[in-house]
Amino acid sequence: DGGITQSPKYLFRKEGQNVTLSCEQNLNHDAMYWYRQDPGQGLRLIYYSQIVNDFQKGDIAEGYSVSREKKESFPLTVTSAQKNPTAFYLCASSMGPNTEAFFGQGTRLTVV
Amino acid sequence: GQQVMQIPQYQHVQEGEDFTTYCNSSTTLSNIQWYKQRPGGHPVFLIQLVKSGEVKKQKRLTFQFGEAKKNSSLHITATQTTDVGTYFCAGPPLPGGYNKLIFGAGTRLAVHP
Q1: Quick one: which of A51, A106, B23, B42 has the fewest CB in 10 Å?
Q2: What are B60-107's pLDDT values in tens digits?
Q3: What is the pLDDT of residues A60-92, one digit of tens each?
Q4: Which chain A residues contact residue B88 at CB under 8 A?
Q5: B106 vs A106: CB contact, 8 Å cut-off?
Q6: What residues form DSSP beta bridges with A23?
């Protein structure tokens, strides 16, 4: 079954701890993205990657880090430097330029 | 940086009424994509428009891409309760926006039976 998988669906962490969100795709897509969505808000781009071992900052990269060591995987680390990390995080992938993006189910992160 | 704005932010309609959402980009887009997110769900791709002035239809949904490739609209005829959700436009900016998919803030549609 092809698709994009995010895990876990819900995540709770204490303030000051780093946390890594998983994103895996078996669609053979080159491009992958991370977005943040706050209640009633749109999608804001955190990081994106066009190919393996390459990634660029989006509009709100501060306090986040990513890696792209494999084509299938694009994990996002929310560091303690992120001032307001509680949000819904969405990972997406696409074949390449100008093609539709496929989204994972999202991870709802709550920091207490 | 590039901004994509959508209006209205929120719209209430009675079932059977029409609905339109508008998308405006501060920069030219190579293409415009539309997505729908149901409450509690994730965005799902609806359509992509590429050519200047392009119009596409999907049943009761009509999508337009502006002549300058900086604006777009989605029109739903005779809304149904299944149309409830948030509609987002998105696009990679020109120049140099290769694979940088920027989303608008979305328009949340509520349909009352």
Answers
A1: A51
A2: 999 999 999 999 999 999 999 999 999 999 988 766 655 678 899 999
A3: 999 999 999 999 999 999 999 898 999 999 999
A4: 42-43
A5: no
A6: A6
